[in-house]
Every structure is written in C-alpha cells, then in structure tokens.
Amino acid sequence: MKITGFIRDNGACGFHRVKQPLEALKKNGIDVSFIEKGDRANDISERIANSDLFVIPRPSETEIMDFFPTARAYGKKIVVEHDDNLLAVSPLSQHYHEWGTEEVKLDRGGKLVDLWIDGKTFDLKANRERIERVKQAISQADALTVTTPGLAEAYREYNDNIHILPNCVDLEVWKKLPLKRETDEIRLFWSGGASHYEDWVQVQESLPVLFDKYDNLKLVILGTKFDGTLKGVPKDKIEYHKWVPTPAYPYKVQILDADIGIIPLRDTEFNRGKSNLKWIEQGALSVPCVTSAVTPYIESDEGGNGVFIENNSTEGWVKGVSLLIDDPMLRWDMGGKAYNTVKRNFDINTQWKQWEEAYRKVLE
Predict the structure, then answer these.
(1) What is the pLDDT of residues 4-35, one digit of tens each?
(2) pTM above the 0.90 mark?
(3) Can you list the domains of the chain with their CATH numbers?
(4) Beta strands in the chain (DSSP E)
C-alpha cells in the first residue's frame, strides 16, 4: 500500500487530517509520501505514478477536480477528507464569505440589516459553484473520511462509503510541563478563531459573575479576542495571545499552563459536524474542561472526566467553573480522567491503525 497525501496549507485540517495520521502510518512501516505547495513538477509526477491511493482534504478547485479522472484512468484510488460541514457554515462566521449560498439579513433590535450582499460582501455565484464542486468531489471519490458520525450524515447523500476517523493528538508531543507558579492564580483558558463568535457569547454573561467572585481568576485567550463580549471583565485579568503556526501550537498551549479549560458551543447544524478536538487537547495536558453539553462534546462524557453545561445557561457556566476553582483535588482528579480518555481513544500513536484499516478497505 502506497499512499500520497495532499497538503493544502499549514492549517489545522491539513495537519490533523493528513499530515499527522499519515506520518504515523509512515512511522509504522507504511509507504507514505506527500505533495505540498512548492514541490517540483518531476517529484510530484513520480509520487503520483508510484501511489495506490491519494488523500485529498476539502477538494473544491477545478484543478483538483481535473485530477480525479486521470487518477481513475490509471487505477488509483481517491479518498476525500472533510472535517467540517461546508454545507452549513453560519452567516456569523467569516468563512461564509467563501461558503455562503444565500444572502443574509440580520435582525438588530427589530430592524433588518444587510449582512451578506451578493456582489458587495460575497460572490453568490462563485460560492454556489464551489459548493457544487465539493459535492461532486465527494461523489466521485472512492471513499470519504470524516471526524464524526454527525459529519458522516451530513455528507452521506453524496457518498455512502464513509469512514469515521477521529481527530487525535500525539501524546509524545502534548505533555504537561512541570511549570512553577509564584501566585495562587487560576488560569481559565479558551482558544478559538474568529468563526467562534456565536459560541463564545454563550459565556458572555457568566464571565463578569465569575470575576466578581474570584479575585485570583485570569482569563487566558489564544486566537481571537472578542472585545465587545469582555466589557465586564477587568482588563488586567485578561491575558491574550495571538495564533501561532500549527506545528508550534501544542507547545504554545503547554506554556500557557491552564488550570481549567472552557469550551462553549452553540447547538447548530454546523457545530454538530465538528469534532471534540479542543477537549482532546486539554485532556492530553490533564486540564479539566467546562464544556457545553452538545455534540460533539457531550459524547466525551464518561462520568467524572469533565463538566458539561446543559442549555448553555449562565447559572450553569458559573456553577461549573466555580466547582473546579473551589476544589483543587477535583481539578486534579477530573484532569486525570480526561487524560485517560484521550490516551485510550485519541492518541495517534495507537489510533493510526484506524487509518490503515480504512485505507486498506478502499484498496480492496
């Protein structure tokens, strides 16, 4: 079995869904190569000629679509990979610019305001054509790999040969550092990009309550800081860090030394297609999380390995975070149980076998 993975960029999708699992396969004796931007044409041609199976994440470009019949003509197999439901991107996400297929008006105090306008804020025709190419690529692929059952259902209409391969981390990289702290500060950690605004606002009302209650609480944010939602939090209690390149991300998170992770999430069609990667990352560091009790995070609940908030209620968030602030031994116990869940189910050093099994089935 000879596999070639297409690396589109240095983002999380390319890393978690192609680079990391295929590197694990290679480490365990499978013949693996990669095609990346900047590779020489001769090298690309050689890898294509020598491969049995190609893994292509999120194909939507015409150039990639043209590759499908060529590969098929030479008896090659194609696996398309998706880790998000691109058919249900929220209008409140900046990615709607690329994936939105309808104009949108936003209700602000009873007044409708244009949010997405064809020809002004996005290109409706280009987006609809892009979505059709996504569907076409999935339909033409020999198999589709996704992160969760919810995402499998979202795409099943276009291809029923679907393999669910969970997002994983490398526990040889994700390790809790033996950092010493000079104060009794409690570090409440969140990471996320600009697309998570409607998720983050789920904790907007609870944060001022928590910071009034605990003088030693510090909010640590990695990624995007939504300033308008933080007016009730003292500025000196907020520690903000910008994104770092994907390979450096695990080390950055380790250095930030969280005590408690918070993972708010709205129950939406798009989010039901996401994975529990944020919970996995914190669990790998034995950090207990307070998380919205919605898919994909509620599926991580094994009893005692996290706090899961029903209905995203302000009272629930305050109570859940307070529970862990007030009880250091509970934090230690819950973080340990989360780590055990991650080690058992989400360590790529053992879970790579799922990828091998899926790819061998495609080649049968």
Answers:
(1) 999 987 788 889 999 999 999 999 999 999 98
(2) yes
(3) 2-90+121-168+348-363 (3.40.50.2000), 186-345 (3.40.50.2000)
(4) 2-7, 31-36, 53-57, 77-81, 104-108, 111-116, 143-146, 162-164, 186-192, 217-223, 238-241, 260-263, 289-292, 307-309
C-alpha triplet 149, 198, 103: angle, nearest 5°: 90
pLDDT digits (tens, 9 = 90+) for 253-301: 999 999 999 999 999 999 999 999 999 999 999 999 999 999 999 999 9
Taken as a whole, the chain contains a residue count of 364
Neighbours of 136 (CB within 10 A): 15
Is the CA virtual torsion 109, 111, 112, 115 positive or negative?
Answer: negative
d(CA 114, CA 129): 23
CA dist., res. 84 & res. 100, Å (int): 14
Nearest CA to 194 out of 57, 58, 279, 92 is that of 92
Which of 325, 249, 334, 328 lies closest to 283, judged by CA?
A: 334
Q: What is the DSSP letter of 121?
A: T
